[in-house]
Amino acid sequence: MAYEKKSVWHYSEIEEDEETARLMPGFEIQYIITDETTNDNEGAVFGHCIFPPKSQHFPHRHQAAQEVVYVFKGRVVNGSVDEDGVITETECGPGAATHVAKGQIHWTRNPYDEPAEFAFAYYGAPSLAKSGYVDHKDDVPIENVEVTGELKHESLVDKDLAKFA
């Protein structure tokens, strides 16, 4: 979809694209501020997402961008792998913000019975395509189970794979 570039957008104006639908089937997600929608944008993405109950976005990383997720409604579990290979998942409700370093493996999932609504932003790249997205679904198998508070997994991810960019 080609957009007329402007500085103010409402998420309802953004259509779902094929790549987003492939990566996150069944989600309502709009990449609102990108290099395709906004003039002079060289390094930021801002988006809106509603995760249906029992859904998940699998482990991945952005080689060229940091990411922030801010929850408005419902709850999600934000997970990540640190450079020592330690897997940590945290329950995040309304008002919670999560930061992910450039190159860090991470994911968001909704194992709960209600939908979750949040905003996300990438810093360092102006689009998903330019963020250096790498899928790690098969490298970090995560079950979509509920988490209360914070959970550190006993299993580790290989340190060479876990290294940030």
TrEMBL record:
Gene3D superfamilies cross-referenced by the UniProt entry: Jelly Rolls (2.60.120.10)
Positions in coiled-coil regions: none
Protein name: Cupin domain-containing protein
Pfam name, any one: Cupin_2
Organism listed in the record: Cryobacterium glaciale
Organism lineage string: Bacteria, Bacillati, Actinomycetota, Actinomycetes, Micrococcales
Domain Cupin type-2 span(s) in chain numbering: 48-120
